[in-house]
Each structure stands twice: as C-alpha cells, then as structure tokens.
Amino acid sequence: MRKEKLKTALLLVLICSSIILAANVWFGSGVWPHGYDFFVTLPNRAFFSHFFKQEQPYLSPMESLAKPRLLVITNGGSRAVYYNSDASYAPYYESVNTFFKTVLADENALVMSTIVGEEEWYDVLRNDELLDTRSIYISYSTAFSPRLFAQVIGTEHTWLEDRVATLREFILAPVDASGQDVLLYIRSSEDGSVSKFYINYPHKAALYDRISAMDENLGYSYAFELNLHDSMVGIGGGVEQKVVMDPLLLISPRSTESVAITGANPITSEADMDALLSAFDYRERGVNRYTGTDGTLHFVENYGSISIHPDGLVEYYAVDEEMGVNILPAEGGTASLYDALNGAVRFADRVWSSLVTDQPFDALVSSDLVENEQGEYTFTLDYYYEGTPITMAAEGIDHAAIIRVKNGRIVEYRHFLRRFSGTGTPSENVPMLEAIDGMYARFAMEDSQIRITDLYLSYIADNATDEMRPVWCARIAGRQALVRAD
Questions:
Q1: Are 316 and 351 in contact (CB under 8 A)?
Q2: pLDDT for position 206
Q3: Separation of alpha carbons 394 and 443, rounded Å
C-alpha cells in the first residue's frame, strides 16, 4: 500500500513538472518575438474570446462620447459656460445625463412634439433677465445617430429614432417650477430643423433648482446676441459684413491662461518596434522587413503591411480586406456602428498602450457617427491636453488617428504617435475679441463673405518637438483647412 502511494505521489510530481515546463516553453519569451505576450493576446482571438468574456470599462475616447463638449447654463441674467474639463461641469452633466437616461428610452415620457422655427430656438437661449429665461444648452463634439446616442448614454434604444435623423445640439428648458413638463429642443445637424418635445419628467424640480442656483456671470454671449451672425449691418442694413459667425458661437471678453506643452515620439528603440508590431499580431519570423530611403521601416506579410515613419506616423493597410484586423468579439456578420466604433477605439488604445504604459490614450472621437448599412465606417480621433484640443499639422495626416473599418475589420489604420507633456510654463492667451478683430482684418478684402463656424483655442502639433502654446483657430464654412487667427 505504501509503495502504491509513493508511485502516485511521484506520478503527480512528474505531471506537474510537465505542465510547468510546457507553460515555460509556450508562454516564455524564448518562443515569441520581443514584446509579444501570447497569454495577453489569447483573449483577443476570435475563438478564445468566448472563454475569456469579461466586462471591460469604457476607454477614455469612448467614455468621453457620453459627455457633451460644453454646457451653457442660462439663469435669467446670469450665464456660465462649462467645458467637460472644468471643475464645475460635473453637477450639471449629472443632471443632463439623468434626464437623458430617464426619458429617452421611455416612450410614455413624451407628451407631444412639433417642428418650430429657428427663431424660437434662439429665443429660448437668450440671456434675458426680464424674461427670466432658464435653460441648459448641450453641445456634443460630434453628431450621432439616435441609436448610437442611446447606446453611448447607456440605453438600448430610444423613441427619437423615428423622429430625428442626427443628434448633436440640445436645449433643456424648464419654463417654471410648476408641473412636470420639460421642453426638449433638438436641432438636426443635417438640415438645421428644430424639433420641440414636451417631456413629462418626474425630476423636473431638481433640474429647475440646479439651474436656478447658478449665479455666475462670466460675460459670455452668443454671436446672435451681439448681431455678429447677420450678413447686413449698418443703417437700413445696407452694408455687407465681410466676416460673419455661426449664431451659436460663444464670445468671451476674458483672457485665459494655459500651459505650454511639448510632444515626443514614443518609438525610441528596437524593442518599441517589436511591441508595436505585436499590437497588430505581427511576428518578425513571418514578416518581410526593409527600410525606405527616408528611413521609414516597412513590414510586409501575406495579408497586409505596416509602415513606421521616423516621425512617429504608423500606417497599416490590409492587402485583402477580408483579412484585416478583426475588432469584433466573433467572426462574421455586419458590424453595427456601436460595435465598430468600440472595437476601433479599443484597438487604437491597444496600439498606444503597447508603447506608453503610464499615460492613458487622451483622445476624442471627432468624426460624425451615423449608421451605415454596408458596415463601412471611417473614424477619426484627436488628441487633447487638459481639455484643450491638439490640432495635428504633420505631413500626411491631420488627426491623431484615422481608422477605416469594413465589416468588423480594420482595413486601414493611420496613427501619428505623440506623447505630450506640460512644461510648467504658463501661457496667457489673447482675448477672443482680439482674435476676432484679427479675423476681420485678415478677410476684409475677400471677394466673398467668410462665415466662421467655430473659433477655439488649440495646440498645433507638427513633426517638430518644439514647445507649443495654444492659439486661436477658426473653422470656415466651405474650407477644409483650419485657419489660425493669431
């Protein structure tokens, strides 16, 4: 009996030793290229993903989609503008988010709806103490399809799907403290039409109190309140204004302070190259490698190629679109907009994290997000630093990342890798009105009228690594290029 037990114990030791040795061979660094971790990559494989299912939190770019770019709180004669990086933004965002989650999935919350003229849209927004107006203007960075908007805020569907084509701008207007009805205005980003919804909202009193408690007056005015949106000015309207602005462009008389930043290419070694390739599941043994005349490294395998430029631009192209990088949890089928976007953002974060482990991928989704029955989407991401956008001005790419997805696979991926750091040097920005004066002087002799659709502070990042300070940048209707207002 003792001999049998000894044999059993010895057999168990041998089995355990075999398992340990096998694990060391398969998961150790000797079999796989530097930077490639089979165990980490295993859950991402389509087959194995079914055995590794887990709830993953939203990454920074996806989480930021649910947060409006700015909230404008108007309370009678007081007005405050809060961007999503401001400390005072959170309580108002909480009120807005609670409203959307409560009513947009509940068809019973809708009392009635109608289409109204643009004049009513502006009247609700006016900073008018005599009318005692109270409202929250809500503006997102990108336009959504109603279905995607519902998924982003955390509901499966919304009754808006049959009523509005695209969502980007909203107004919540508690007219008074009585009753439960809230007015919800939505302006279509396609044709500018304004839909007015009467909403039964059980938490109206809390929303009304939140707006009424705001007593700041930071001096902001909409362009339409200053008559900067009108093409004809002067007595009798006989003088044509050469530069006009979008009616809802917010004008501030104050100067602000920012911090200077620098940018650095995070690819600094051969190990970084290997780690980057592993993010695409490329293995050196199966990849042909050559160097271009400009120093660009090219890696080519059967179904695609990766180019790593000296300045940090990474480009991937699928030779066979059906063999592109799979970003869905399972093979086959047409990807929904939500799944395609979520997968694309996760992959961009995977590329970033392969090189930068101590800093999140601070980027915003900047492309409009509208459903496509063919399952083909192009997403753009843009960097920002402490709430201030970073405009890419590098040769060959004008976004942080451009991702083309077809049927749940990435068929083209371009990413300008830059790690940004603050220098600690404060930088005072010129007042917005001064930038506007500069725009007027710049375009005074134009043959046709110039319409400014947006004016904002942004860092300008190019191939250089010089210190950057925010400058005023303008978007002009009908022109693709960004115009610096300094």
A1: no
A2: 93
A3: 26
Instruction: For residue 122, give the 3-state DSSP assignment.
Output: helix
CA distance 381 to 361: 10
CB–CB of 235/264 below 8 Å? Answer: no
Phi, psi at residue 29, to the nearest 5°?
A: -80, -10
Residue pair 73/80 in contact (Cβ under 8 Å)? The answer is yes
Q: At what angle do helices 204-212 and 89-103 cross, to 10 degrees?
A: 160
Question: pLDDT tens digit string along 355-364?
Answer: 999 888 989 9
Tokens standing for residue 32? 């796989």
Report whether 134 contacts 173 (CB < 8 A): yes
**In the structure encoding, which two tokens stand for residue 350, read together?**
């995977």
Which of 164, 166, 172 is CA-nearest to residue 124?
Answer: 172
Angle between helices 337-353 and 146-153 (to 10 degrees): 50
Does 21 or 55 have the greater pLDDT score? 21
Residue 24 has pLDDT above 80, yes or no: no
Instruction: Tell me the per-residue pLDDT of 314-344, one tens digit each, with 9 for 90 and over.
Output: 999 998 888 899 988 765 556 789 889 999 9
Q: Which of 101-105, 214-218, 234-238, 369-373 has the lowest mean pLDDT?
A: 234-238
d(CA 309, CA 433): 40
Spatial distance between the Cα atoms of 466 and 275, rounded to a whole number of angstroms: 27
User: Is the predicted pLDDT of residue 15 greater than 70, yes or no?
Assistant: no
The packing angle between helices 337-353 and 270-279, to 10°, is 160
Q: List the structure tokens of 13.
A: 């030791």
Closest by CA position to 330, among listed 49, 87, 38: 49
Query: Quick check: helix, strand or coil at residue 151?
Result: helix
Q: What angle do CA 90, 80, 59 make, to 5 degrees?
A: 30
Task: Spell out where 1-133 has E strands.
Answer: 70-75, 78-83, 110-116
Helix (H) or strand (E) holding 159: none
* Number of alpha carbons in the 13 Å side-chain half-sphere of residue 436: 22
What local confidence, expressed as pLDDT, does residue 168 receive? 94
Q: How far apart are CA 468 and CA 464, in angstroms?
A: 10
Token pair for 303: 């179904």
CB 452 within 8 A of CB 475: yes
Give residue 420's pLDDT: 93
CB–CB of 465/262 below 8 Å?
Answer: yes
pLDDT at 238: 55
Q: Give every CB contact of residue 213 below 8 A, 6+ residues apart in sequence.
A: none
Residue pair 110/102 in contact by the 8 Å Cβ criterion: no
Q: Give the whole-angstrom CA distance, residue 279 versus residue 297.
A: 16
DSSP string, 272-337: HHHHHHHHTT--GGG-EEEE-TTS-EEEE-SSEEEEE-TTSEEEEEESSGGGSEE-SSSSSSPPPH
Q: What is the pTM of this model?
A: 0.80
